[in-house]
Amino acid sequence: MPAELNLVFVGPPGAGKGTQAARLVDDFGLPFIATGDILRANVAEGTELGVKAKEYMDRGDLLPDDLVVELIMDRLAQPDSADGFILDGFPRTVPQAEALDAAMQQAGRRLTAVILVEVPDEELIERLSGRRVCSKSGHTFHVKFDPPKHEGVCDVDGSKLIQRDDDQPETIANRLRVYHEQTSPVVSFYDRDNGPSGAILRRVDGSRDPDEVYRHIRALIATVRMEDTL
Ligand code: AP5
Description:
Number of domains: 1
CATH topology: Rossmann fold
Helix content: 40-55%
Number of strands: 8
CATH superfamily: P-loop containing nucleotide triphosphate hydrolases
Bound molecules: BIS(adenosine)-5'-pentaphosphate
CATH class: Alpha Beta
Number of helices: 8
Shape: globular
Oligomer: single chain
């Protein structure tokens, strides 16, 4: 029986983590756990968490670790995550990475790979400012790189396409700053040889065409799985 596939996607805002992870979900049938999506759903529903989260998200700041850690640990404890998962947007700080490691160890599990999608800042700004998302289901498009068939309308379900509140220029700049200051250390955390997770970081050049990026990620996963069985 193949080992469980526990994947984490890390990378700056707009690197294409969501775009790539969504395709892998279709391939592997694993639950896709994206902190940003969970938080936006809470904002839309007006939950207590959503009201709190909106303040941070609108500024492009990270929510406090304890809130996000609890949210993700609850989600990972659900039965559908028992045979594997794809995490997007968590961990984003070293304390979050440590909490995930501790929870995995306690459950006798481990991460299969942490996939870092790398893209230069200039390109991220263009991607985020041109991103449009489906107001109903979050399907993602780009005015230049992945335009919908009809302007402003989702190809998948015909809903209106909107711009995310945090895809405004000032917020994008802060999100990039926050990434470099607070999330970059997570990359080193997973890249070190003797850490609790070992060196499980895999780098992907996210500046290429989405299909090429996808092929690279699939090849990486195949390699990691093969190494697992040796
Ligand atoms: P979150 O929703 O996780 O945002 P993010 O990390 O900033 O990531 P994005 O969704 O913006 O980008 P992506 O990499 O998924 O890119 P996408 O595939 O859409 O988090 C939002 C907020 O929630 C945070 O700011 C924070 O406040 C809070 N939060 C979340 N997690 C947290 C945590 N763990 N702790 C604390 N707070 C947390 O692609 C972008 C665009 O580019 C699209 O238009 C797409 O069509 C296009 N594109 C994709 N790939 C390519 C390609 N290869 N070439 C050309 N265009 C491409």
